[in-house]
Amino acid sequence: xxxxxxxxxxxxxxxxxxxxxxxxxxxxxxxxxxxxxxxxxxxxxxxxxxxxxxxxxxxxxxxxxxxxxxxxxxxxxxxxxxxxxxxxxxxxxxxxxxxxxxxxxxxxxxxxxxxxxxxxxxxxxxxxxxxxxxxxxxxxxxxxxxxxxxxxxxxxxxxxxxxxxxxxxxxxxxxxxxxxxxxxxxxxxxxxxxxxxxxxxxxxxxxxxxxxxxxxxxxxxxxxxxxxxxxxxxxxxxxxxxxxxxxxxxxxxxxxxxxxxxxxxxxxxxxxxxxxxxxxxxxxxxxxxxxxxxxxxxxxxxxxxxxxxxxxxxxxxxxxxxxxxxxxxxxxxxxxxxxxxxxxxxxxxxxxxxxxxxxxxxxxxxxxxxxxxxxxxxxxxxxxxxxxxxxxxxxxxxxxxxxxxxx
Amino acid sequence: xxxxxxxxxxxxxxxxxxxxxxxxxxxxxxxxxxxxxxxxxxxxxxxxxxxxxxxxxxxxxxxxxxxxxxxxxxxxxxxxxxxxxxxxxxxxxxxxxxxxxxxxxxxxxxxxxxxxxxxxxxxxxxxxxxxxxxxxxxxxxxxxxxxxxxxxxxxxxxxxxxxxxxxxxxxxxxxxxxxxxxxxxxxxxxxxxxxxxxxxxxxxxxxxxxxxxxxxxxxxxxxxxxxxxxxxxxxxxxxxxxxxxxxxxxxxxxxxxxxxxxxxxxxxxxxxxxxxxxxxxxxxxxxxxxxxxxxxxxxxxxxxxxxxxxxxxxxxxxxxxxxxxxxxxxxxxxxxxxxxxxxxxxxxxxxxxxxxxxxxxxxxxxxxxxxxxxxxxxxxxxxxxxxxxxxxxxxxxxxxxxxxxxxxxxxxxxxxxxxxxxxxxxxxxxxxxxxxxxxxxx
Lengths: 407, 442
Fold this sequence. Notes:
- The structure holds 2 protein chains of 2 kinds.
- Chain A has helices at about 5-15, 120-125, 155-160, 190-215, 225-235, 245-260, 275-280, 305-310, 330-340, 345-350, 355-360, and strands at about 25-30, 40-45, 50-55, 65-75, 75-80, 130-135, 145-150, 160-165, 170, 240-245, 265, 285, 315-320, 380, 390-395, 400-405.
- Chain A is of the alpha/beta class.
- In chain A, the strands form 2 sheets. In chain A, strands 5, 6, 7, 8, 9, 10, 11, 12 and 13 form a 9-stranded mixed β-sheet that branches. Chain A has a 7-stranded mixed β-sheet with strand order 3-2-1-4-14-15-16, with helices on one face.
- Chain A is globular and about 65 Å long.
- Chain A starts with a helix and ends with a strand.
- Chain B is of the alpha/beta class.
- Chain B has helices at about 5-10, 20-25, 125-130, 160-165, 195-220, 230-240, 255-265, 280-290, 315-320, 340-345, 350-360, 360-365, 415-420, and strands at about 30-40, 50-55, 60-65, 75-80, 85, 90-95, 135-140, 145-150, 150-155, 175-180, 245-250, 270-275, 290-295, 325, 385, 400-405, 405-410.
């Protein structure tokens, strides 16, 4: 091939990746998730949105619309909690923005001011069919900062983000306690009750701030941290509390009750001990990655937790979590897959990386299932998506093919 | 969980029975047992449908299709219809058992033995059994140029490390020597500050060991002329004499070649461990005929040396003709999920046969244990795993793990299931292993 021809082919390939947002996908099996699987199905995407889903014989594909095929088609997967984009794969100081240790409580830290949509870990997740990720400040301080929800594409944070302030990330238990060797130059919180006291104090302060701000005192000075906490108190955003030990989970429930706020429980290694309490509090759980390392406050984790949450009627979703070392991210597809050995069915596992995750994150009006009107976000596989030996063969976001590697 | 561990955990010291009693009371102890009806993947040969595995006195007596294997009349028969049987898995690199080697006083500590640190009651051993692992190379960390002597462990029932350790023909403890290069072993003095210094420090120690050997040879049996005993140099001579294989933690392409260069200079036997960039220097490794033990994790990065980690690496080194094994590096990956690594290698193009061999016989070869374990062949130890289905399917579970003809893990046992699944208190606190790095830089 001549150099010119090769260059032309490269241009064509690029055009193929970033075509207009009309595309049709034929699947040997299409899993809409919101409806039963369709054999020989078609998903038609027009202008980035799903226009039709149905049997091949029933969905007319307009002339000129590109058609791609795959053995299995699912909604784009949703990673319900991660730190990618703030944490980078090199794991060097300059690509680690997921946590700021100068203070225990920093609700004013916005994830949009740190998220790197071009981080290779984002592309890594995208190549496995993950199209939406809830990411942001990682566990590790009492209030570590805000989170966002982004599509796993886009060159700028503005392109990528669909919810700029999704949740406020907090931590209880050992994860919030400062290193006794004084690594961060602070003494507090030195234990779990101090962490809880600091969180309550911050919420009390924000409540008073809210009361003042809603008065006629125009001269009240703004406090960005309290503004962020006030949004939690007004139930505009949930408080995402990472807690693994049973006593820390109970502390989270107690604080949610005291301040009448929307709580999302994160991690929950021992949540299976508190099924009645969590259900009664109507709190959803973003369960720890199945394969996260079982030591420290996660020493009692169980691969069977998702099945127990499901049986108890507690809403939950899977996550890739935050990893401080190798591997720098997990892949939510694989974390869900492990539960197939632990009492979850294929359909249940799939729902909790798609529609159930979307519901938990409050974005099910846009993503999570293959229904007309929703975003044209699809994941393509050459077999059972959860099988070790299957491959992700393509990812589509809003009608644009954003990954065509086989992995 | 083994019977002895179970007995210890159930009650106080007064319930600990003499070992002999427990052995007599253990299940699966019929003189001869025939496991029938399973699909057997012996690794040393083709798959056997409706297979028969005859076990006698801890050894495999026969293995083959039902039509070809004569089952002794007095044999206990265990029906495994619908199951899949594979050899016990061999993990060439693990940190279960709270292993520790040298301390921070010296980057090169050949005298330190993990033998003297291993906690055989660490639940990591139970997790390994739950994952089908029957043989493991327990290694000290990679934060040293040479962190100490490794130990090859048989995950049989036992009360002490001596009960579990593989022995050499002379009765000594079988194990290798852990070495490392690249960033993990770099640090403040006396640790090296650069790669070149790392290599120079190691070379000097080997040169010193050769000098020690010359003095011993010069003494020619005369005690008066013998040099003062030096445990570190003695261990290095075991390495130089090929009696102790070097397990070399190395990631980057240039570090891999440095390991090969050291081997060429000093002639030690070498297994390359981790080898994240093996795919970039596969031909060079193949030219030296050095085996590699690989690890796959869920994403590249986490440290600079792992940024080029490639799922296709196992397939690439297979095509290059290398002998390739896998390892858990537990805690880096959980021993309960070791089979998953083979599945991932197949996903990225490795042949299924080689992937299963990499989890079993190839690892046995790298530990000099392939005469005893790694495949299902007459005369070998009866170490095997009973699976619910295909070894590389995410739907498959390890149902039972057998070592020397005795069951050491049974998913139907409630306590064992808690270890396999995780449950409150099932896995008591175990020290995290992070290669001397701590849990990243929070």
